[in-house]
């Protein structure tokens, strides 16, 4: 048989260089592009893409050109400096290339015997993270996952295994009404019933109500149930809020409850002095989710779960099937397939390792500090304005506010409509990605400023446009 997959060295190089050129040029010119892809319907895209899988080959460059023309421009650039919404994905170029290298060599990152250096890199980088968060290096451990959702799921499986064993019929899990949706998703995947979940209301600053948590635990114990896990927020996605971690840790210690801290968004703030202060107590978690593809500036996909005791992971996830018997090593030589869900895993540690080696940790500290300070500067600007009202202050690079001119006497309903429409107008221009969220039943505009490329001028520019839109929309509302 002719091996159709073979290419000559020259062909591989010229094809590969073309892709590297595309990536480098994108990084170099991102500022000149619009962050938001033109909205297309399923019908629009079916017309471009839908066809049966072709039996016959097409010239490689022709397929690539088609992708460059139709896939890349129909994607929103979360790494764009004016992508302010959700959680931006600023990424970095070195990691982008390292990830490409890991793919290029198709390095299997499941077991020590197959790729010992891959496992070693994961051990070393996980140790860097353990140290950052003041977790015990010797006893502690962790694993890189596809993202924060998978890290949270891995944590909750572990918590249940360690605290409940096989019988979790009486187990109860607690989380705040600001917890990320991936936590509820994980709880459902684990098969908990609705009656086993307690959503604890937050206070006016979006922190968990400690008293409400204590009451819920006490009531459940009286009913013979087993409180086994609490999920605390270290930087909520909505407002950047950090729950009172020391107070929560005290309760969890007293009640023998597993403390899982979801730091998928805010964990990386530990790199900045101010973040360290805000995250005080995070070192008391039993398990901690962080998400390097967010604020550690890594490309998708890399999430991470850290635990106080690595044996909790191996005790939960190791199975010893007969076909893996030849690759069992000694205990210090970790098989990461024993630490989580995946057997076959890509080498995620490589990008993390390469970028920190290349740029140095200080570059990351500077970037995170810059992001936090930029958001505070934006808050100051908004507070000095007669048209903007800050709804939730700059917290770990997230700020929520709304257009609400002080000299206008507007009903809540009108303010909601006004802000919704301002966001729509921005999105129609595609000059920025800037959407709303809901806080305390109000529609508010939210900015998450974790891109080191984002300047104050970028934000100022967007806000100035919004003020103009606000004025126009308000006038049109008055005349109708
Ligand atoms: C983003 C996020 C998650 C989910 O992480 P993914 O990487 O998107 O799977 C979980 N928790 C919080 C607080 C987040 O911000």
From TrEMBL:
<dbReference type="InterPro" id="IPR002129">
    <property type="entry name" value="PyrdxlP-dep_de-COase"/>
</dbReference>
<dbReference type="GO" id="GO:0030170">
    <property type="term" value="F:pyridoxal phosphate binding"/>
</dbReference>
<dbReference type="GO" id="GO:0019752">
    <property type="term" value="P:carboxylic acid metabolic process"/>
</dbReference>
<dbReference type="Pfam" id="PF00282">
    <property type="entry name" value="Pyridoxal_deC"/>
</dbReference>
<feature type="modified residue" description="N6-(pyridoxal phosphate)lysine">
    <location>
        <position position="294"/>
    </location>
</feature>
<dbReference type="InterPro" id="IPR015422">
    <property type="entry name" value="PyrdxlP-dep_Trfase_small"/>
</dbReference>
<keyword id="KW-0663">Pyridoxal phosphate</keyword>
<protein>
    <submittedName>
        <fullName>Glutamate/tyrosine decarboxylase-like PLP-dependent enzyme</fullName>
    </submittedName>
</protein>
<dbReference type="GO" id="GO:0006520">
    <property type="term" value="P:amino acid metabolic process"/>
</dbReference>
<dbReference type="InterPro" id="IPR010977">
    <property type="entry name" value="Aromatic_deC"/>
</dbReference>
<dbReference type="InterPro" id="IPR015421">
    <property type="entry name" value="PyrdxlP-dep_Trfase_major"/>
</dbReference>
<keyword id="KW-0456">Lyase</keyword>
<comment type="similarity">
    <text>Belongs to the group II decarboxylase family.</text>
</comment>
<dbReference type="InterPro" id="IPR015424">
    <property type="entry name" value="PyrdxlP-dep_Trfase"/>
</dbReference>
<keyword id="KW-0210">Decarboxylase</keyword>
<dbReference type="GO" id="GO:0016831">
    <property type="term" value="F:carboxy-lyase activity"/>
</dbReference>
């Amino acid at each position: 048989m002719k091996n159709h997959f073979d290419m000559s060295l020259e062909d591989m190089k010229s094809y590969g260089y073309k892709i590297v050129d595309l990536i480098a040029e994108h990084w170099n010119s991102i500022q000149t592009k619009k962050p938001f892809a033109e909205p297309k319907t399923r019908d629009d895209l079916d017309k471009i893409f839908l066809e049966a899988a072709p039996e016959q080959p097409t010239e490689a460059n022709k397929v690539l050109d088609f992708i460059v023309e139709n896939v890349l421009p129909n994607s929103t650039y979360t790494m764009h400096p004016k992508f302010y919404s959700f959680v931006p994905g600023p990424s970095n170029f070195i990691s982008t290339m390292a990830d490409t290298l890991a793919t290029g060599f198709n390095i299997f990152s499941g077991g020590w015997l197959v790729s010992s250096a891959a496992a070693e890199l994961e051990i070393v980088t996980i140790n860097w993270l353990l140290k950052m968060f003041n977790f015990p290096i010797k006893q502690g451990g962790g694993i890189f996952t596809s993202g924060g959702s998978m890290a949270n799921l891995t944590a909750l499986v572990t918590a249940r295994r360690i605290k409940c064993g096989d019988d979790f019929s009486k187990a109860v899990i607690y989380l705040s009404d600001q917890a990320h949706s991936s936590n509820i998703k994980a709880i459902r995947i684990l098969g908990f019933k609705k009656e086993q979940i307690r959503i604890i209301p937050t206070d006016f600053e979006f922190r968990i109500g400690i008293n409400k948590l204590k009451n819920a635990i006490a009531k459940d114990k009286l009913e013979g149930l087993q409180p086994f896990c609490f999920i605390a927020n270290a930087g909520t996605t909505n407002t950047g809020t950090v729950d009172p971690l020391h107070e929560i840790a005290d309760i969890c210690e007293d009640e023998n409850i597993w403390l899982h801290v979801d730091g998928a968004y805010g964990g990386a703030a530990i790199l900045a002095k101010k973040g360290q202060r805000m995250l005080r107590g995070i070192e008391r978690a039993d398990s901690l989710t962080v998400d390097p593809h967010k604020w550690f500036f890594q490309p998708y996909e890399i999430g991470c779960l850290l635990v106080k005791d690595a044996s909790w992971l191996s005790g939960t996830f190791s199975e010893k099937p007969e076909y893996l018997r030849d690759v069992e090593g000694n205990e210090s030589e970790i098989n990461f397939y024993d630490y989580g869900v995946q057997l076959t895993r890509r080498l995620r540690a490589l990008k993390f390792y390469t970028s920190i080696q290349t740029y140095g940790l200080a570059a990351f500290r500077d970037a995170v500090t810059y992001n936090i300070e930029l958001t505070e500067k934006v808050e100051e600007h908004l507070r000095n304005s007669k048209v903007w009202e800050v709804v939730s202050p700059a917290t770990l690079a997230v700020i929520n506010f709304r257009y609400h001119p002080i000299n206008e006497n507007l009903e809540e309903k009108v303010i909601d409509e006004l802000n919704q429409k301002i966001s729509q107008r921005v999105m129609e221009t595609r000059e920025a990605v800037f959407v709303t969220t809901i806080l305390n039943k109000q529609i508010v505009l939210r900015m998450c400023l974790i891109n080191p490329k984002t300047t104050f001028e970028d934000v100022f520019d967007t806000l100035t446009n919004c003020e103009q839109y606000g004025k126009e929309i308000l006038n049109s509302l008055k005349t109708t």
